Hints:
Elements: H1 2-21, E1 30-31, E2 33-39, E3 42-43, E4 47-53, E5 60-63, E6 69-71, E7 73-74, E8 82-83, E9 85-93, E10 133-136, E11 141-142, E12 145-147
Parallel strand pairs: 2-11, 2-12
Antiparallel strand pairs: 1-8, 2-3, 2-6, 4-5, 4-9, 5-7, 9-10
Amino acid sequence: xxxxxxxxxxxxxxxxxxxxxxxxxxxxxxxxxxxxxxxxxxxxxxxxxxxxxxxxxxxxxxxxxxxxxxxxxxxxxxxxxxxxxxxxxxxxxxxxxxxxxxxxxxxxxxxxxxxxxxxxxxxxxxxxxxxxxxxxxxxxxxxxxxxxx
Length: 149
């Protein structure tokens, strides 16, 4: 009787551990995303790239470097990549802010009316008006963005 009670107790313990093993995976599945931003086939630096997921998940952000390359990080700054699935792509020309452009939420309320003229259309600056979309797959993604005129 005592042996069968120990076996039952161990079986419950092992099955309980299996339930808790999956508890650390919170939030949507993320995948690495990088690529190049270009206009007329020429790489663009200082373009803030935002991936806004169509379903649940965080917004992901990056700023393109001198070669137009970007590598996304989740909005919380803790997870690399973007949520798996379709996204609206929002673009901001942060070169209008000068040498030290604000990035992410800090750039959302900056008055740029007295700054340089953006190199890209303002229609790409909102998820409601952008015409660019990308789909993030459950693998390493190399997603190039050629900005339409």
